[in-house]
């Protein structure tokens, strides 16, 4: 591993250490992480999984993702918004997912808030458009792992705004991770083969 934190794989491509060894994480890094998510259902899924990840490894969440999708109706907000006590107890008994009652209840609450956003007179569009409205003027350009931020003024503002709209489990650090995962900021290390590939940021910012 270089001093920057990048590892050159057997394919000659440079990746951060966390995405280098495990095939599941490597595939996620190469194909999905940091790519733009602009649809409501996709953004709601990412928001939900980031909340479930709190205190756990992302590998754990990725391994359980297929089970999460089955358990939460493919993260269709209208479906999850209608979950009641019976569905919550079903989820608490589902060993395929993370059985944390607070996080499960937060997901239901956030689905209901997502549905309400559609008709919010102060919001143009729905959840995805609302989250993207907090895109910063420029993206970080970290050259080492130590330079990668874990929060930002925009993620704090997004966190505050979502809480005002009735969302929960949306702290500023979790929201920064969401912004990284959905392409709103590009925190791929300069030198990574994925830097600048989202199409969101020009090479001037990479």
From TrEMBL:
Query: Mind listing the UniProt keywords for this protein, alphabetically?
Result: Metal-binding, Zinc
Q: Which InterPro entries match?
A: Adenine_glyco (IPR005019), DNA-3mA_glycosylase (IPR052891), DNA_glycosylase (IPR011257)
Taxonomic lineage: Bacteria, Bacillati, Actinomycetota, Actinomycetes, Mycobacteriales
Q: Does the keyword Metal-binding apply?
A: yes
| Single annotated GO MF | metal ion binding
Q: Give the residues annotated as coiled coil.
A: none
Q: Which residues does Zn(2+) bind? A: 188
Know the name of this protein?
DNA-3-methyladenine glycosylase I
Biological process terms from the Gene Ontology for this record are: base-excision repair
């Amino acid at each position: 591993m270089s001093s920057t934190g990048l590892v050159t794989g057997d394919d000659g491509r440079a990746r951060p250490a966390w995405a280098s060894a495990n095939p599941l994480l490597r595939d996620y890094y190469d194909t999905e992480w940091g790519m733009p998510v602009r649809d409501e259902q996709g953004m709601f899924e990412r928001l939900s999984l980031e909340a479930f990840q709190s205190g756990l490894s992302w590998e754990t969440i990725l391994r359980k993702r297929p089970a999460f999708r089955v358990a939460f109706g493919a993260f269709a907000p209208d479906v999850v918004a209608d979950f009641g006590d019976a569905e919550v107890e079903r989820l608490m008994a589902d060993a395929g997912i993370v059985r944390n009652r607070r996080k499960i209840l937060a997901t239901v609450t956030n689905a209901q808030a997502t549905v309400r956003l559609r008709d919010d007179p102060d919001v143009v569009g729905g959840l995805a458009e609302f989250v993207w409205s907090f895109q910063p003027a420029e993206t970080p350009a970290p050259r080492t792992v130590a330079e990668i931020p874990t929060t930002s003024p925009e993620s704090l503002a997004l966190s505050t705004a979502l809480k005002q709209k009735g969302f929960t489990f949306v702290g500023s650090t979790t929201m920064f991770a969401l912004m990284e995962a959905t392409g709103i900021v590009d925190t791929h290390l300069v030198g990574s083969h994925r830097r600048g590939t989202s199409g969101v940021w020009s090479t001037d910012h990479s």
